[in-house]
Design a protein that fits this description.
Blueprint (H helix, E strand, L loop, with lengths): L1 E4 L5 E5 L2 E5 L3 H5 L13 E3 L10 H10 L4 E3 L2 H8 L13 E5 L14 E5 L3 E3 L12 E5 L7 H11 L3 E5 L6 H16 L4 E2 L7 E3 L1
Parallel strand pairs: 3-4, 4-5, 8-9, 9-10, 10-11
Antiparallel strand pairs: 1-2, 1-12, 2-3, 6-7, 7-8
Amino acid sequence: MRTSKHIHSCLVVEEAGKRFLLDPGQYTHEAKALDLESLDNLDYLLITHEHPDHLYTPFVKEIVAKFPQVKIMTNSSIVEILGKEGIKAGAEGDELVKIEEVPHEKIFGVEVPKNVMFTISGKLADPGDSHHFKTSAPVVALPVQAPWGSTTAAVELAQSLKPEVIIPIHDWHWHDAAREWMYQRLEKYFDSLGIKFLGLETGQEVEV
């Protein structure tokens, strides 16, 4: 399984001869952190929930324009949102992608949306904006910073899940220097627990 990160929660995963794009949000689009022209194919587009840092409709339209046959998987709320834009999506998984509804964490002043966790080939789990989930996947995309949560809560969750590998997501709010410092600290801490922490730079691809 090859994985690359393209700011915040946007991941590109290659597994079983297929390519998956997860949560292409506004931050990724505005920073031009994912060059669609560099992708020669895209099989799946996976969107956990409707917040713009995960679902940016103009970006989705660009993706669908280049890859009209892409299979979009998400939750029922986004199926309706995209349907109004003439974009077909579904809320059911298949033999490669498992979809499970998990709660979006509480945010002050707003109602939380539906949120789903994707598990790709039983190997990588991405819970969107949730710290309340269980998974046996060896690789976990872990939200490490947010207005709705804390890094300490993320670390405690990871300790309970005990994955083999962590890929940090949801960290746009950190300044680059702060991110580098925290990645180093988290790498050292998780190493003491026998867990590999991969603090991916934008566009960096790794085998997991």
